[in-house]
């Protein structure tokens, strides 16, 4: 998949992503955690989290909804960008931070993050593809290795609010 076709997918889904984020934030996490993503090759009971991060260039705070899975007590997210040939901005921004903030349903956390490597990465990747089958298609569409980010909660924090974000996600 080229960056152009990835952009077309993002453009088609842009309104859905914004609506999903707003629903999640406006409900305090009561809605938006579980979503039906069968139209894009996912499951009907797919799990989503919110990730809050600071833009490495803008200094603005962004909140992005992402599919996730839990493996071994760590929350895993995938920097797929729909199979684009370059990494998503949220991933590049998280790489510049020592900690990460994430929300799952009605609970938010500050935590650590890491990227699995070697055999562990392969195990986690296979698990993510099992949970969210479209990741396999995204991986076939690009030459880059799609990064995985594993987050571990360290402390509970207040749930995210729309006004926490000083920037809007760029598509």
UniProtKB/TrEMBL annotation:
Instruction: Identify the stretch annotated as signal peptide in this record.
Output: none
Question: Could you tell me the superkingdom of the organism this chain comes from?
Answer: Bacteria
Which catalysed reactions does the entry list for this protein?
oxidized coenzyme F420-(gamma-L-Glu)(n) + a quinol + H(+) = reduced coenzyme F420-(gamma-L-Glu)(n) + a quinone
Check the record and name the InterPro entries matching this protein.
F420H2_quin_Rdtase, Split_barrel_FMN-bd
Query: What Gene3D superfamilies does UniProt report for this protein, alphabetically?
Result: Electron Transport, Fmn-binding Protein, Chain A
Q: Which NCBIfam families match?
A: hi_GC_TIGR00026 (TIGR00026)
Which PANTHER family did the record assign?
Answer: DEAZAFLAVIN-DEPENDENT NITROREDUCTASE, F420H(2)-DEPENDENT QUINONE REDUCTASE RV1261C
Q: Which family does it belong to?
A: Belongs to the F420H(2)-dependent quinone reductase family.
Name the record gives this protein: Nitroreductase family deazaflavin-dependent oxidoreductase
Q: What species is given as this protein's source?
A: Novosphingobium album
């Amino acid at each position: 998949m080229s960056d152009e076709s990835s952009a077309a997918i993002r453009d088609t889904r842009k309104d859905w992503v914004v609506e999903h984020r707003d629903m999640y934030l406006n409900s305090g996490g009561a809605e938006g955690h579980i979503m039906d993503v069968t139209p894009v090759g996912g499951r009907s009971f797919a799990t989503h989290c919110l990730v809050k991060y600071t833009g490495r260039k803008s200094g603005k705070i962004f909140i992005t909804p992402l599919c996730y899975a839990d493996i071994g007590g760590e929350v895993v997210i995938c920097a797929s960008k729909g199979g684009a040939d370059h990494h998503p901005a949220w991933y590049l921004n998280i790489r510049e931070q020592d900690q990460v903030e994430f929300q799952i349903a009605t609970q938010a956390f500050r935590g650590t993050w890491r990227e699995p490597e070697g055999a562990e990465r392969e195990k986690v990747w296979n698990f993510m593809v099992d949970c969210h089958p479209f990741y396999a298609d995204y991986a076939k569409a690009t030459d880059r290795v799609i990064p995985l980010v594993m987050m571990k909660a360290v402390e509970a924090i207040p749930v995210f609010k729309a006004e926490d974000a000083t920037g809007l996600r760029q598509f």
